[in-house]
Structure formats: structure tokens, C-alpha cells
Amino acid sequence: MSAAAAVFLPLIGALVAGALAFVHGRKETKAGADRAAQLVTCTLMVLSALAGIFLFNSVALEGGGGTITIFTWVDSGSLEFAWALRLDTLSAVMVATVTITSAMIHIYSIGYMHHDPGKPRFMAYLSLFTFFMLMLVTADNLVQLFFGWEGVGLCSYLLIGFWYDRPSANRAALKAFVVNRVGDFGFILGIVAIYLLFDTVRFETIFAAAPSQAQATMNVFGGTFHAMTVITLLLFVGAMGKSAQIGLHVWLPDAMEGPTPVSALIHAATMVTAGIFMVARMSPLFELSETSLAVVTIVGASTAIFAATIGCVQNDIKRVIAYSTCSQLGYMFFACGVSAYSAGIFHLMTHAYFKSLLFLGAGSVIHAMSDEQDMRRMGGIWRMIPVTYVLMWIGSLALAGIWPFSGFFSKDVILEAAYAAGSGVGAYAFWMGVAAAFLTAFYSWRLLFMTFHGKPRMDETTLAHVHESPKVMLWPLFVLAAGATLAGLLGYEAFVGHDAGGFWRDSILVAQGHDALARIHDLPGWVPWAPTIVGAAGIGLAVVFYLLAPHLPAKLAASFAAVYRFLLNKWYFDELYDRLFVRPAMAIGRGFWKVGDGLVIDGFGPDGIAARTVAIARWVAARQTGYIYHYAFAMLSGVVILVSWYLFQTAG
Amino acid sequence: MSPASLPNFVPAVPEIFLAAAAMALLMLGVLQRAVAVGEQVRISRVVTWMSVLALLLAILLASAVTGTRIATFGGMFVNDGFALFFKVLALLATALSLVISMGYLERHDIARFEYAVLYLFAAVGMMMMVSANDLISLYVGLELQSLALYVVAAFQRDDSRSTEAGLKYFVLSALASGFILYGSSLVYGFTGTTNFDVIARALDGTPVLGVVFGLVFVLAGLAFKVSAAPFHMWTPDVYEGAPTPVTAFFSVAPKIAALGLLLRVVTGPFGDLVQQWQQVIWIASVLSMVIGAFAAISQRNIKRLMAYSSIGHIGYALIGLAAGSRDGLESVLIYMAIYITMNLGTFAAILCMRRSDRMVEGIDDLAGLSKSHPVLAAAFALMMFSMAGIPPLAGFFGKLYVFKAAITAEFYGLAVIGVLTSVVAAFYYLRIVKVIYFDNLTDALDRAVPKNLTFVLLGTSAAILLFFLWPDPLLASSQSAVASLLGG
Question: Which residues 201-240 in chain B show a CB within 8 A of chain A?
């Protein structure tokens, strides 16, 4: 019951708010509709969050669970599946995380979108987004998962392009949609491959049959491959798209074009975590392929360091946080890659709190700065917005992994697991993770210092207008700050500590010999300290660069101009894709349009035939001279030709 | 036949009656000695109505005397179900042409009783044509018809275009007649007879080249009469120049008669030369369809456009003949019956195109007709859709039957060309609909529509619109007509 409430209340909210979005008329009517939409969606979302907490309690903590079948969806031959809610610890954790953060974001949006005319539409999209994400995490079969998967894709498109009168927002929305399509293509191929091998799309049946198919092979493009590797790699392509891993990450920073609560929602609760969740959900299959796990680890670790380097030089406050998300997702993936799925999900949860806190805090800053997002035009405002300042500190401490904030526990355990895995890729992940942790701390405090400290760099009117956000925006931040502070401490034992076995039960499967998590207690003494030490070092470097010697960064950037430009331009991924895909695709499209359609089809088709017809008509009509001897000549010619025809026919 | 005995007159009673009626009406008109214009109009009206009556009586007589095939006058004249079918169509077409002529002639001050009498003589000639069973009687019937037509084409004597039309038609028709005579003499020379039945027996076996030449000449002459390409050149000029009701008459009655004659000639005496005449008909059919479709596109004058349209329609009808099968011949009969209905309806509509009591003939003059004359516009559009072959109108079924016959006889090329050219032709038919319905009304046509035109227009519209509900009478009669032609 609580599960159904948690999942479907946001849908009801979305439908109501969506209907209210069509209310037009007098100013008072419109304002009433706006008010009603906000009230309905927020109330339902809070109720949903309460149901989510209740569900977490009953399923994860008290050991309930099971599957609630709503009704049959498809029953066709051997293909049979239903709309159903699969309730186990994994989905319960996700439902609780998603509903809580989403509820906070909903409430925050009331304040943030105060001046926007499209409030009901915005609230409807937010709720719908949440609904699809819940549908995704509670799916009991791959098709329902895909339904939610595509649903969040759709909502991200709608929300990123929410301000549809801005060309840049439209471009960003399209980019998110198209890049996700690449991943989705892999995902759907993976689903098809699973159906091919298992003849079902239901998790229950697939997981039960997985061990017996461990050595199965599959023909792809004429070659024979290990079936599990093929399947899991295809699934991982989908996960890479949704979770913005290196290569398919390009949409995430651009997604900042949406309103800030959307960024928070995408980065914390919905959308990007879907990939991590899917990999964890499909752990029984991933565990059967060493190759896939290695790929997941390498891609995750590379993303972690890659995004962190870019984060260090960005100047847009939201972009810094966006790259930080990208980087943290990398952590989660390599945790999954070394079979520490529970650590990955643990980090997913703590990250949801501190990242939404950071985003909403950044939103509060932007709100205070009259929509300024460039940190180079901020500075010295910490006295004016002290609450936001403190909240941003908490978020940054959690992100950088400083004890006792939540990030400390989840990030540490991931790095320890990577080290404990004892494999080559594990070591790669560990060192990349440590380096990324250093950079994370550095760019987080760079952000804090550039935004709040130093001399004010904005113009007078903006400075005079700097103000603390209203209560409706601050209260959700307190809730999230509490989560960011305490979630790690409270959750450690259950998620990855000694109680983990009873907590997760069979919702996550780890193969024999993949027990990196179990070995984290017998690591060399320096390993658990490494993240904290590099974190502190990163903070220290930021202090030097941005507080003590503010001229240093510019000097450094000048001396390593090439490196700086490389990072500033985000490793030139956009330019590379532009050259590799966008321009050739445009060229092909232009070719088909101008040559294929315009020249060939129109030319030889409608236009050409019409032109020829008119020409023939003119010619034929011109033969009609009106002179009687011409006509007589035509008749005689006709007879002569016919007679000659027979003459030759008979003679030949 | 012994010289002492008289020939059997019974089969020819309708012709004899009509000829006598024509001469009687001529006498009536001459003896009135009318001088005043009003008097002439009055006499013309009386004679015209009596002519229409005579034509209808002739149809009744023809139906009454026709049973099994009877040849008479030494085998020169034959009466059978086939002849009856064409006689009924030709006489009906002539009668309706007379009906739609009346107001026009009076408005243009050319109402003379001779007009109706000439129509009657033409009708006698047509009846002779479709009943001809000898090259001589063929020629006599043809000339009787043609002589009357030359005169009516030039009936508007004061109008140079009308005179020109009559003269052109006369000269070129004489050339065509020359072809027929020359061809006939060749056939006679090689077979020693002019009688169709005897020729048919003589041509059993491998054809002699001379006979083939004769056939080609005869066919060329007949192709001229039905205005099939490449012997069509006279048609647009004559159609445009002749008074509009005469054009209407030209486009229906003589065509149906000439086509009946053509069918009888190729299936009767030259029935064994099917390989030879099929090729001529094939070429004529394709050329007619193509020229009918393309040349009409650039026309601005509705009468000229109708001329090309009729060339195209003859091309479609010839598809059925080229197929050579029983189905094919039946489809020709069906096509022609539908064709004359559409054409009479269209010309009735064209005759309504008057502005300040003067005829206008430009397609652009129809602009906005739907607003000034909704009913007339609807009927006009109906005719155009039918001509373009849009289901469920009759024109569609006419085309359907000929294409089906061509496909069955494996003349795929003909069918494909037919379909393609009908697409091209649809353009100019639909353009008229577009002008009527979508162009802005600039200068409205005259409000009043004469009763006789309304009558013909509504009658033909109903026939075109409702044909698909009761196709059986036409199908059955064409079937029995072809059966009597082929003797089976």
C-alpha cells in the first residue's frame, strides 16, 4: 500500500498540476491555479516521501518486501509481463531517497520559481519526473524499467527545455535527449539480448536462470561471444548514457540550462542515478562477466578523474557542481565494477542529499545574485547570506568526504573496496579515485571561496540587492543538510558495515571471490586515511590559491596555457563530437535534402514531370498551326508511315 | 435476287421514314416563304420540334423492326442488334443536340428551319453508316452525313470563324473520303467485290499486301471521322469555329456513327486481318490518348479543350477495339454511350456560359461560378470529374471496362499508357473544377439558364451520377449488340 502510494501520488500530482497549467484568464484566476498546483504537488510529494520512509522501514529495516502485481501488461506467446512493483531493499532505498529529495525540491521550487509564469507546468513536470523514476526503480521486469527509463528521458527533455523561448535551453534539451538515445539504443539491445537468451523479461526468472547461462555464447556480427559479457556491456552502454559517463557525459553540463531545481532533481534523485541503479539491479548478470566488471570499473574511474579535472577550471557555479556529479557518478560505477554494489548505492544515497543541497544552495546564491551564475562576478557575500553560506559549507564538506559528513563514509568505503579488490583495474580505480578526491576538495573550496569570499566583483545594483532566500527555500535545505550530515554515519553499518548482509538480503548479488567489501577491514593502515588526507590537501591548496595568493591561479593558467585551455574546453569532447557526428550527420542530411529530395525526387518527380508535361503540351499545341495544308500533310504522312510500316513488315 | 422482285424494305423503314420526314419538313419550311425574322424563328421552332419528334419516332421504328440480322438491297444494307445500338445512340444524341441548339440559334439570329432538316439528313446518313454492309453503301452513308455536317459547321455564315471551320472540315473531310475511296478500290481490285460478307470470305488465309494497303487507307479515312490521331488535326479548329451547339453535335453523333462503322468494318470484312488492323488501331489509340492529354493542357478556350478531350476519349475507346476481344468491343460500346452522355452534359453547361447575352468560351470566364450558379457549377464539376474518371461516376466505369479488356487481352502497354495519360488529362479537367470553385468571382455570368439546357444538364448529370447503381441495362444491351455483330 505504502509502495503504491509512494509511486502513484506523484503521478496524480502531475496530472492535476498539468490540468491546472491550462487555466488561463484573469490574473487572480491564474494565481489561484498556480497556488493550487504548487499546493497539490507538494502535498502529494510529501505524502509520497512519508510513504517512502515507511516503505524503507518496513522493507529494508524490518525485512518485508515482495512483489505487488497491478495488472497484466503484455501476455503474448512466451512474452508475458505485468505492471508490478518489486519491493526489496534496493528499490526501497531508491524510493526513499528519490521521494525525500524530490519532496524537498518541490517545496524549494515554490520559492525559486516565484517569478515564473509557468508554475503549474513546472510542478507537473517535476512530479511526472519523480513518478517515472519511481516506476523505474520499482520495476519488476525490464520493459517496465525501460518505460521509466524513457519516461525520465522525456521529462529531462521537458525540464531542461523548460524555458523554451531560450535557444540555448532548446539546444541543451535536444542534446540531452539525443545523447540519451545513444545509450538507450544499447540498453534496448541489451533487453532484446536478454529476452533472446532467457525468453523472459521478468527479473525473478532471469536471475534464477542466470547461473545456468553463465557460459552461454551468442553470435554477434558473425563472431561468437560470451553472452553475459555482450548483454551486460549493452546494458552498461545504456547506463553510461543515463548516468553521464565519459563519452556520453556531454549532455549533463548543458542540462544546467534548466531551472536550478531541475538540475538538483536530475543530479541528485532522478535520471543520472538510474544507470547506477540499473547496474546494481542487474548485478546477478554483471557478476557473471569479469570483462564487463572491468569495463565498468575503468569507465567509472576515468570519469571520476576526468570530470574532476574539468570541474577545477569552470567558472559557472552550476557547471562546477555538474562536473562534480559526473565525477561522483564515476565513483559509484567503479564501486559497482569491483562488486561493491552496496557501496555504490550507499554513495548514491548520500550523494543525493549533499548534491541536492549543493545545487539548491547554489540556486539560493543565484537567486540572491539576481540570476548571476558566473563565479568571477561574485565574491564577498558570505555576511549577507550567512544561512546559505553555512549550508554550502556542509554540502562541500560532505562532498569532499570530511568526517563526520556523509560523503566521508560512502567515498571511503568505495576507495577501500577498490583497493581491496586487489586487481589491476581495482588499483587503477583506487588511485584515480584518490586523485579525484583531491581535486574534488580543491574545486569545492574554490567554489566556496570564489563565491563567498574575497572582494565583491559584481556591480553595485546586484550587490545592493543581495538577500537571503525566503523560508520556503531554506527549510528544504535544512532537511537536506541534515541528510548530508547524518546519512553516512547512520547508514554505514547497515549499508556496507556488519549488518549489510541482513540489510540487502538477496536484492544485490555478489559472486564468490568478489567480496572486496568484506576485505576492507584488513587493509594497510594508510589506505583509509588517504581520502581524508588528500581532501585536506585539496582544501589547503584552495586556501592558498583563492584566499592567500589570489594571483596564483591566473599565473598558473598562463604558464600551462595549453593544459588550462584543454580543461576549460572540457577536453574538447563537444568539438570532437561536433566534428565526428554532428557535422557529418548535418552534411548527410543536407545532401539528402538538397540532392536526394530537391534534385532527384523533386527534379525527376513532381517538378520535373510537371515541367516536362507543360513543355510537351506547348509543343503539341504549337503543331496546331491552323493551316489546312499542314493538317493535310499530317494526314498524308500518317497514311504513308502506316503503309510503309506494313510494306517493310511484309517484305521483311 | 431476281430483277423482277422488290427488295425487302422492312429493315430500312426507319431510314426511309426519317428521310421522308426530313424532306417533308424541308418542304414545309420552304413553302412557308417566311421573310420576317420573327416568322423565321417561329418556323424554325416548329420544324425543330417536329424533327426531334421524328428522331424519337425513328428510334421507336428502329427498335420495332430490328430482330435477327437481316441483309437487304442485295446485301448492301444490313439491320441487326449492333446497328440498333448505334442508331439509338446516334439518334438520341442528334435529338438532344437539337434540343440544346434552340435558344442559341435564336440569340445569334441564325434560327433557320434548314438547321434541323440538315440534322435529320445527317442522322439518316449515320443510320446508313452503321447499317452499311458494302463499301459502296458505306461511302454513300458517310457522304450523306458529311455533306450535312459541312453546312451546319458553317451555319453562322456571318462569322468568319464558323465559315472557316466549315471550309476546313470540308476540304480535309474530302481528303479523308478520298482515302476511303482509294482504299475501297484497292480492296475491290484484290477481292473482286465490295460486299462485306464476300470480302470476308475472300480474305480467308494469308492477306495480300494490296488488301492491307486498302485496309490502311479505309482505316485512315474512318480515323479522320472519329478524329483519332494522327488524323485529328481538324478537330480543334472546327470545334472552336463552329457554333457551340454544332460543336456539341459534332462531338457526339457523327463520332458514334463513325465508330460503329469502324467496328463493323474491322470485325466484318476484315475480321481475318485482325493482326493488321490491330496495329493501326494501337498506334491511333496511343497517339490519340497522348495528344488528347497533353495538347489540352495549354488550352484557354473551353471548346478547343473539349476538342482535345474528345480526341483523348476516342483514344480510350480504341483501346477496347485494339484488344480485339468480345470484352473489348463491348467496352467500346459502353465507353461511347457514357462518353456521349458526358459530352452532351458538358456542352449543355458550356452553352450556359453567357455574359450580357453573348457566349463566352474562355476557361477563365468560369471563375467563381460556384458562387453565382451553384447548381450549374456542381453539374459542371460532376461532368469534369466523370471525364477525369473519378469513381463512382460513369466516366470511371467506362475507363475501367476498356482497361480491363486491354489487360485481359494482354495489351499491358496500352493499359499503362492509358492510365498515365488519364492522369495527365485529369489535370486539365480538375483545373476547370478549381477555376469554378476556388478562383475569385470577377464578372458573373448571366443569371438565367434556359429550360432546355437545364433539362439536358440535369438528365445527363443524373445518368452520370447514378450509373453505378443501374449499370445492367447498358451492359446487357452492349453485350447483345456485340453478340449480333460477331454472329454468336
Answer: 209, 212-213, 216-217, 220, 224, 230-231, 233-234, 236-237
